[in-house]
Design goal:
594 residues; twelve-stranded antiparallel sheet; Trefoil (Acidic Fibroblast Growth Factor, subunit A); alpha+beta; 2 domains
Length: 594
């Protein structure tokens, strides 16, 4: 076997007969398509040969445009845009050979940078109002633009109101296409490029080779070329053509909407040369002959002083009425106090209204007491109080002004007693009002009545959709109906002394931990999570027990239920001296300040 030679490369192996037949069939199919001219390259060559076929533009002797004239629509270019002409953007998919070679609709249009007259760029001015062929085209008169007959099929330049599935390919503006049947969407009209002179030129003959604006009759949008949007066509890179009015700061159409309808020179030398001299009376008497070339118009208008910004153009009357209606609506809302700023002022005025906290004479907390829940702060956290986080969305005025549930809570750094920070210790086990609150005894915390509506401080087991806004921990909110979810209890802040303090009276102004009865989570303030509220930047309040390494609640869970000083001097001052036996003998009086 070592001396045995391998087979030659011309030895046939595998399904060689089947592969040979397949190659012959492919070769025969290719030759048949080539003979019938159906190859893609042949189609492209055939399409270009016919589309670039020369066309004779109509000769003008009086300088005017007439129905039946064959013209080119040329835009002189501008920023990021060269001189271009509206062209038929037909691809091989638009090519048909039966019953005769030509293009089929719908067919797109683009702005090609080649401005030689050919089937791609030639359009016929067609009457839509019964005007005879050869009559003069007037400003503001409706007409249609059709391609030449024969290979170009005499298609109508058409546009319509844009929709989600019918708009320009790149800019998504109003689409311009070619269709085989003329209708109202294929009607156009010509207006003077200067809005100040449009009224004067209305009904006057349109001159050839002068700058104009072509308006779509149905949508009132101007024909435009988009220099920033390049389309890859069979004929190269070309600009997108749309129907959209581009206005500058003076509400005048930009150069994207300026067009020149080109005719040959009267001397028969082809198109009007770019350096064609200007006439002294050009654009002064619209009935004079053609006296302006493509570039001469641009040069003349560059030195022409524009109209004043106080001149009313466009739909000025409609805009004036709209402004008056908007002003009237604003005044009506202001009188009713429904402006956003008025709502915020009204909300703050009521929420920050002062509230008298309950006076304690025995140093203990009682059912019915009005207190504040204050956290003395810690790392990255200042002293703060649990506050109602109501915004304009919670504000209601019927049947009486107030806030509605559900409403959030936060920890505000302002610890003055007001409707935002005042809570009432409410019995849930039938204890009479005025009786002493005990450690481990269930109770509820409600807001004050009136504007604050007496809402219950509530929490529940967190879920995917119901959790704190930033920390995603257990949410704490205010609701209008009390239930087991709104039950809380107070325990001593030192776990080693909780058993000793169980069932003893709770002292006012001493450090405690507030536990949610259902979830056994402690009320907490998180200094790392800042909420942007109507009242400023505030801390987030949640129900979550934060334990340190000794399994003791951190200062995030420590709260002081504040009452006024017994002497009547307001809240207990922050430097209130501690009693030597504070938190040692639970039966003693109130001896601890904030």
């Amino acid at each position: 076997m070592a001396q045995r030679t391998v087979f030659s490369s011309n030895v046939k192996v595998g399904n060689w007969n089947e592969e040979l037949l397949r190659q012959e069939e492919s070769k025969k199919a290719y030759q048949d398509k080539r003979e019938s001219g159906m190859l893609a390259t042949q189609k492209i060559d055939f399409l270009k040969q016919n589309m670039f076929g020369p066309v004779n533009l109509s000769m003008t002797t009086d300088g005017r445009l007439h129905f039946g004239d064959v013209v080119m629509l040329v835009n002189m270019g501008g920023e990021n845009r060269e001189c271009s002409a509206v062209s038929i953007n037909a691809g091989v998919n638009n090519l048909i050979r039966i019953p005769s070679p030509g293009i089929q609709s719908p067919c797109g249009v683009s702005a090609g940078r080649g401005i030689l007259p050919c089937r791609r760029t030639a359009f016929i001015i067609t009457s839509v109002d019964g005007s005879p062929e050869g009559s003069t085209l007037l400003y503001e008169q409706s007409f249609a633009l059709t391609t030449t007959s024969g290979f170009a099929r005499g298609l109508y330049l058409t546009s319509d109101i844009k929709s989600f599935g019918k708009c320009a390919q790149i800019s998504r503006l109003q689409e311009v296409t070619l269709v085989d049947e003329g209708s109202f969407p294929s009607w156009w009209k010509i207006v003077h490029f200067d809005p100040q002179e449009r009224l004067e030129y209305e009904g006057q003959p349109v001159l050839a080779d002068v700058k104009v604006v072509i308006i779509h009759c149905k949508t009132n949008q101007a024909l435009a070329v988009m220099g920033d949007h390049i389309r890859w066509t069979t004929y190269g890179k070309e600009y997108e053509v749309t129907a959209h009015t581009f206005l500058d700061s003076h509400k005048v159409e930009e150069d994207k909407n300026h067009w020149i309808l080109c005719n040959p020179d009267p001397a028969g030398a082809g198109l009007v040369p770019l350096d064609h001299p200007e006439s002294e009376g050009d654009n002064k008497e619209p009935t004079q002959g053609k006296t302006d070339g493509i570039h001469s118009i641009t040069a003349r208008m560059a030195h022409r002083r524009g109209f004043s910004s106080t001149v009313k153009v466009g739909n000025w009357n409609e805009e004036l009425l709209r402004e008056e209606e908007a002003k009237k609506a604003y005044l009506d809302k202001r009188e009713r106090g429904e402006l956003f700023a008025q709502k915020i002022d009204f909300l703050k005025q009521n929420m920050l209204g002062p509230v008298n906290l309950s006076m304690t004479t025995d140093g203990r907390l009682h059912f019915g007491d009005v207190v504040m829940l204050v956290n003395m702060g810690g790392e990255n956290r200042e002293c703060s109080a649990v506050s109602i986080n109501a915004d304009v969305n919670n504000l209601i005025r019927i049947p009486s002004p107030g806030i509605q549930s559900p409403c959030g809570v936060s920890a505000g750094r302002g610890i003055l007693p007001c409707r935002r920070t005042a809570f009432i210790i409410t019995s849930v086990d039938g204890s009479p009002e005025g009786s002493t609150l005990l450690y481990e005894q269930s109770f509820a915390l409600t807001t004050t009545s009136g504007f604050a509506r007496g809402l219950y401080l509530t929490s529940d087991i967190k879920s995917f959709q119901k959790c704190a806004q930033i920390s995603r921990l257990q949410e704490v909110t205010l609701v209008d109906e009390g239930s087991f979810l709104s039950w809380w209890k107070i325990v001593h802040f030192d776990p080693q002394e909780r058993l000793e303090y169980e069932g003893q009276p709770v002292l006012a102004d001493v450090k405690v931990v507030i536990i949610h009865c259902k979830t056994n989570q402690a009320l907490a303030v998180i200094g790392d999570h800042i909420l942007r509220t109507t009242y400023g930047k505030e801390y987030e309040v949640t129900a979550h027990t934060f334990l340190d390494s000794h399994k003791v609640e951190e200062d995030k869970n420590h709260w002081i239920l504040c009452n006024p000083d017994p002497a009547g001097a307001g809240l207990v001052p922050l430097d209130h001296p501690e009693s030597e036996g504070d938190n040692k003998e639970p039966t003693q009086g109130n001896t601890d300040g904030i």
